[in-house]
TrEMBL record:
Residues 24-278 form the EAL domain. This is cyclic-guanylate-specific phosphodiesterase. It comes from Methyloglobulus morosus KoM1. It comes from the Bacteria.
Amino acid sequence: LSKDQGRGGIAYFSEEITRAIRERIALEARLRRAIGHQELRVYYQPQIDIASGRMVGAEALVRWQDPDEGLIPPSLFIPIAEESSLIVKIGEWVLRETCRQGRLWLDMGLPPMTLAVNVSPHQFRRSDINALVATVLAETGFPAGQLELEITESGLMANQDNATNILNNLHAQGVRLAIDDFGTGYSSLAYLKHFPLDVLKIDKSFIDEIPHNKDDMEIAATIVAMGHTLGFKVLAEGVETPEQLAFLQKAGCDVYQGYIKSRPIPAEEFAELLLEQQGDG
Ligand code: C2E
Ligand code: MG
Ligand code: MG
Ligand code: MG
C-alpha cells in the first residue's frame, strides 16, 4: 500500500462515518418532529387465555406513520430513540395514549382488558416512572389493575440498585409487572423471584422452532413449570402455528400472543374483535 492509498482509505472511512452520523441526526430530528406532529400510532396485539381461548388483553406496540414513508416499525426507530432521551418522550406518549384508549373501551361497555405497555431500560432508569404512571392513571381514569408494564431482563439488570424500589412502588400502585423476552438475557428465574413480578413472557425465539427443536420445547416447558412454581403467570410470544399452540396448552402455559390469532392492529380493529367476542357470549 502506498501512503496515498492509505490516506485515501482513511478519508473514505471517515466520510462513511460522517455520513452515518448525519443520517442518524437527521432521523432523530424527524422522529422528534413526528412526536410533535402526532405521527405516532399505537397498535394492539391480542393476548389470549389458552384454556378458554378468549382474549384477555393486548400489548400496545408503537408505530410511526410517516407521511412520506408510510408505517415504520419500531425496530427501525426505537433503538435510535433509545440512544437519546427521545425514548422517554415516546414511552410517555404510548403510556398515556394506551390508558386513554383503554378508558374509552371501558366507557363503550367493552369487557375489561389488560393493556401491556413496554418500558425501555432508559425510561426505567429514571425513577420518576412511578410518578408518571400515577399521573397518567389519574388523568385518564384507567384502572391500575388493568395496566401491565413490560420490562426486559436487561432493563432490570442495568438498574439493579433501584429496580427493587421502582418495581415495589409500581406494584403498590396496583400495576401488573411483566418480564419481556424472557430467556434472552442472563437473568435466572431464581434472580427474578426477588422482584414483585406477575408475568413472564417467554421470548419468541424459543417458540419459533416448536415442534421441531426438542431443546426449545424442553426450555419452554421448563420456563412454564418453574414460572408457575415461583407464582408467575406465563405468556408465550410469537405463536404462529396450531402445533405450537397445542404444545403450549399441554405444557400448561397461561396466555399467548402471536400471528396465529392476530398481528398488532389499530385500536378500531381491536375493538371490533372485542365486540365479536362479546357477541359469542
Ligand atoms: P416486544 O415487546 O417483544 O413485542 C413483540 C414483538 O413481536 C412485536 O413486534 C410483535 O409484532 C412481534 N410478534 C408478535 N407475534 C408475532 C408472531 O407470531 N410472529 C412474528 N414474526 N412476530 C410477532 P413489533 O411491534 O415490531 O415491536 C418490536 C419491538 O419494539 C418490541 O418487542 C419492543 O421491544 C419494541 N417496542 C414496540 N413498541 C414499543 C414502545 O412503545 N416502547 C418501547 N420501549 N419499545 C417498544
Ligand atoms: Mg413487549
Ligand atoms: Mg417481547
Ligand atoms: Mg421481542
